[in-house]
Write a structure and sequence with these properties.
The chain is mostly helical. The chain contains twelve helices and two strands. The chain has a two-stranded antiparallel sheet with strand order 1-2. A hairpin with a 3-residue loop joins β1 and β2. α1 packs antiparallel against α2 and α2 crosses α7. The longest helix is centred in the C-terminal third of the chain and has 30 residues. It starts with a helix and ends with a helix. 50% of the residues are buried.
Length: 356
């Protein structure tokens, strides 16, 4: 358990001071954010704000995790290493997208097909390795299950391996893009990520304490490496906390696609490894709402031949255009995100109580 505290504290400190350094370096080299011309006019003042800050989040959390393992004298698990691969891999795709935008001074970074291919390659590699027998432990349990899960694996929804891989890829693509869509206001995606990764820290700690290895029984959890996953979740939570100090309104730095793709992919990875894939729709409910708002906007625009359902999508921009201050939108959306997290964790705990 010491490793969890070490990871959170070290990542927070690394992120806090690392972000301050990144602001200076990125500003010095002119790595500033480009602003959508069709966005709220109030965002024009953000043009030139340093971006790619997600690089600090990723580095701080990964370094914090490995330092915590070193200080606690424990070895990284295959589950955590696979999740780090997904996290860093998607962060790399996002970094390339951000860098091209800045270097070529345009809103479009990687072409949509190139970005899709990059995300898919990382997701496929992660999903295949997560269900392969070669990654199984002495009990024969792989990091990921081939069953779709809600609060636990739904054994009546057991899938063939190739369909399970496709489902994992879909989940990763969905949530990496969902966090990306949410990252449109100062501190919105970062603050929400703190709450959601904090929830997965608690879920992993609980699953470790009630695992079938430690506490066999009717309500025990058949999961791989929950304690080590809690260390990684704590590291990401701490890194987001440290970054939020500088990302809160008025933001001195943005995470960019580097951070949003990495964080969204990591969320999907935690859901897969904790056997809570469908529960992520509740815990990460704000990200889902934001994505659905874009889908509804596009669908309604096509069906109604040019009419808009919202003034602008994603949903946070709609409320801005209704006259809400940016800080008001962010704080109220944080409250909504917190309610989703509380509902998801509450369901998770209630199921265990009912089965014990």
């Amino acid at each position: 358990m010491k490793a969890i505290l070490f990871a959170a504290a070290l990542s927070l400190v690394l992120s806090f001071f690392g972000t301050r350094l990144a602001i200076k370096l990125l500003a010095k080299h002119g790595f500033g954010q480009l602003i959508r011309e069709d966005g709220p006019t109030s965002h024009a003042t953000k043009r030139g704000t340093p971006t790619m800050g997600g690089l600090v989040i990723v580095l701080a959390s990964v370094i914090g995790y490995f330092l915590a393992k070193l200080l606690s004298g424990t070895m990284p698990s295959i589950s955590a290493l696979l999740l780090i691969f997904l996290y860093v891999g998607l962060g790399t795709v996002g970094f390339l997208d951000d860098f091209i935008k800045i270097y070529k001074q345009r809103n479009l970074g990687l072409r949509s097909m190139a970005k899709f291919i990059g995300q898919t390659v990382v997701a496929v590699a992660f999903a295949v390795m997560a269900v392969m027998p070669v990654t199984a432990d002495e009990r024969g349990m792989t990091p990921a299950s081939t069953a779709i899960s809600f609060l636990r694996d739904l054994n009546w929804l057991m899938l063939p391996s190739f369909l399970a891989v496709l489902f994992i890829i879909f989940l990763i693509a969905g949530f990496s893009n969902a966090v990306n869509l949410t990252d449109g206001l100062d501190g919105l995606a970062t603050g929400t990520s703190v709450a959601v990764f904090g929830a997965y820290t608690l879920i992993n700690i609980w699953q470790n304490n009630q695992s079938c290895v430690r506490s066999p029984g009717a309500s025990c959890y058949e999961v791989r490496d929950p304690l080590d996953l809690a260390v990684l979740a704590a590291a990401i939570t701490g890194a987001c906390f440290g970054f939020l100090w500088w990302n809160a309104s008025p933001a001195q730095i943005f995470m960019g696609d580097t951070g949003s793709l990495a964080l969204g992919g990591a969320l999907a990875g935690f859901a897969v490894f904790t056997r809570t894939e469908l529960l992520l729709v509740i815990i990460g409910g704000l990200f889902v709402v934001q994505t659905v708002s874009v889908m509804l906007q596009v669908g309604w625009f096509k069906l109604s031949k040019g009419k808009r359902l919202f003034r602008m999508a994603p949903l946070h921009h709609h409320f801005e255009l209704l006259g809400w201050n940016e800080i008001t939108v962010v704080i109220r959306f944080w409250i909504i995100a917190g309610l989703f997290v509380a509902a998801g964790v509450g369901l998770f705990y209630a199921e265990w109580v009912a089965g014990s």
